[in-house]
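yo

u said u wanted the structure for the complex thing, so here. seqs first:
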Amino acid sequence: KNEVEQSPQNLTAQEGEFITINCSYSVGISALHWLQQHPGGGIVSLFMLSSGKKKHGRLIATINIQEKHSSLHITASHPRDSAVYICAVRSQGAQKLVFGQGTRLTINP
Amino acid sequence: DTGVSQDPRHKITKRGQNVTFRCDPISEHNRLYWYRQTLGQGPEFLTYFQNEAQLEKSRLLSDRFSAERPKGSFSTLEIQRTEQGDSAMYLCASSFTGGDSYEQYFGPGTRLTVT
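structre next:
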């Protein structure tokens, strides 16, 4: 079993829909990251969080440390949100990131 | 642009050849990371440096792989005697250890194809 599991692996939705991507992890962490990867490979950091909730524009990330679970929400989704969304964790005392497999999101107009 | 840069962006090589990739981190960042990503998978950690010291290496980093960061600035990743299984995107990231921020900033990646 991977240390970081994401669901779903693929998600297709219509423009305007509310999107939720889930991430579960099995180790104690010091931080969890949500990343966005567009075709061509470039990775952009969306959020880094260790507790609670963060919001940036239409994106919201939440984490429940006790349940070892995080969610990424996108409100009023738009075709430009189409990308791969990756959850990654940094274990306590470590520097490297351990990544989930990614969720491929497609938003149709 | 003062982000992380990687060179080359694409590399096609024949099996058995050696290849070298370069990463230039954000200038004030003292930590530099190498990750590898195969198609349809999330990235996997290879190694990281703090300044010029290589502090951790993954078991994925076989004897054919070597990474250096000679002056604590840019880094190189060399793969000797490439194999088809080495085909992947090689990602570099950097971070700064000051304060409580461990945000890692990623470069565009080098896509390696071994034929």
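Chain A touches chain B at residues 4, 30-31, 33, 35, 40-45, 48, 86, 88, 90, 95-102 (CB under 8 Å). Chain A has a mean pLDDT of 94.
cya
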